[in-house]
Amino acid sequence: MSIGEGRGARLKPCPVLDVAAVRARFSALDRALAFFDGPGGTQCPDVVIDAIARYLREDNANVGAPYETSRRTEALVDAAHARAGAFLGCDPGETAFGQSMTALNFLLTRALARELETGDEVLVTRLDHDGNVAPWLALAEDIGIVVRFVDVHDDLSLDLDDLAAKLTGRTRVVAFPAAANSVGTAPDVRRVVELAHEAGALAWVDAVHYGPHGPIDVGAWGCDVLVCSPYKFFGPHMGLAFGRDELLRGWRPYKVRPAADEPVGHRFELGTSQHELLAGFVAAVDYVHSVGWDAITTHERALGQRFLDGLPRDVVLHGLPTMAGRVPTFCFSVPGRTARSVAEHLAGRDVAVWWGNYYALETMRLLGLDEVDGAVRAGIVHYNTAEEVDRLLAGVTELVG
Fold first, then answer.
1. Can you give the pLDDT at residue 13?
2. Are 94 and 268 a contacting pair, CB within 8 Å?
3. pLDDT digits (tens, 9 = 90+) for 13-49
4. H or E element: which one contains 136?
5. Is residue 235 a contact partner of residue 355, using CB atoms and an 8 Å limit?
6. CB under 8 A, 24+ apart: contacts of 25-28
7. Rounded distance, CA 326 to CA 308, Å?
């Protein structure tokens, strides 16, 4: 029994999110369009936009010079790594920024590849975004490693028994998503990490899609590498990675010779950082923490359940039918309609959703869906409202009524 579950214990009340106050912080939301396209990138609060503009207006410089703007830029770089450490639950020195999650993942996998041998194995899953699959497949072509796919259950939850069965003495990495960007499945991260470590493999987490939906804690999760994208959690377009200190120190990075070796994460940052985007990143993390994860997750789960309860029976939901084990991202098909035509119908009603494969090629193949048209994807984040969910459902209902 955990703390607070005993008889007579007072239950902590669920925090109530003031959605109107949240939305007032986003000029981008002051329009009719209902944004359910967060899985492809969230809107930015005004503080993020202002921070980027302020840096370019007042502090724009490169690092390493003795004058004022250069010193302020160096302070910004330090602040960005500090916020990254706070957001991911790690030491700031274990973080690295890059162009995108995919770019960082290719860089990190190639640094690791210097230690891999022909026949070494990497496990990925049928839930993965191709950004956490293609780098390993490229290494299979380049150096002869073996890439195996972990299967999923019929409800698209990860099959942990299949994962355990596919682990061998040659498994070097288990790469998997903290949440699937296509169907919303959120695997048990700690359990997957435990299974990987029991086999002597690294646990390599893609947290891009999980980022806006709950706190990341690499220390509690125990993972070895984690990659994510700030533009999915209300920040600018860039990538962010974590790597365990001792692991990163053991790899020989691809970098120019004069580039800094300390902190160790800097070894994996190529060229001049996107300083203005770092300013936006700092503001984004501060924004998320100002709202609070408890309020965010409570609100999102309520909206997610509202969507599930209101989805017409004739619509095919791909994935878990409840909010257990998932984030509020929903993948569905309307019989007799292409995914593209559904998305266009909703766009005509000021509802923004995606259609296609979302780079989740293995998931679409598993579902037997067209790899180009794919399915419709609606993603809820905390700035969405109950009225917007109802408008989304009404638009879908029009197609099956």
1. 62
2. no
3. 667 899 999 999 999 999 999 999 999 999 999 999 9
4. helix 134-143
5. no
6. 25/287, 26/383
7. 12
Summarize the confidence of residues 137-152 as an average pLDDT: 98
Predicted confidence band of residue 5 (pLDDT cuts 50, 70, 90): very low
CATH assignment, 19-41+292-400? 3.90.1150.10
> Domain extents for the chain?
19-41+292-400, 50-288
Q: Percent of the chain scored above 90 by pLDDT? A: 93
What does the alpha-carbon distance between residue 58 and residue 77 come to, in Å, rounded to a whole number? Answer: 15
Q: Determine the Cα–Cα distance for residues 84 and 93; give it in Å rounded to an integer.
A: 9
Q: 134: part of which helix (H) or strand (E)?
A: helix 134-143
Q: How far apart are CA 133 and CA 96, in angstroms?
A: 20
Proportion of the chain above pLDDT 70, given as a percent: 96
Distance CA 151, CA 359 (A): 17
Neighbours of 64 (CB within 10 A): 10
How many CB atoms within 10 Å of residue 224? 23
229-232's contacts with Cβ under 8 Å and 24+ in sequence apart are 229/100, 229/101, 230/277, 230/280, 230/281, 230/284, 231/41, 231/42, 232/38, 232/39, 232/41, 232/42, 232/208
Q: CA angle, 303 as apex, 301 and 304 as ends, to 5°?
A: 60
pTM here? 0.94
End-to-end Cα distance, the chain: 48
Span 50-288: which CATH code?
A: 3.40.640.10
Say how far apart CA 92 and CA 277 lie, in whole Å: 17
Distance CA 231, CA 39 (A): 10
Looking at 313-385, list the stretches that DSSP marks H as alpha helix, in order from N- to C-terminal side: 339-347, 361-367
Residue 126 near residue 149, CB atoms below 8 Å: yes
Half-sphere exposure of 343 (CA within 13 A, CB side): 20
Distance from C-alpha of 270 to C-alpha of 253, rounded to nearest angstrom: 10
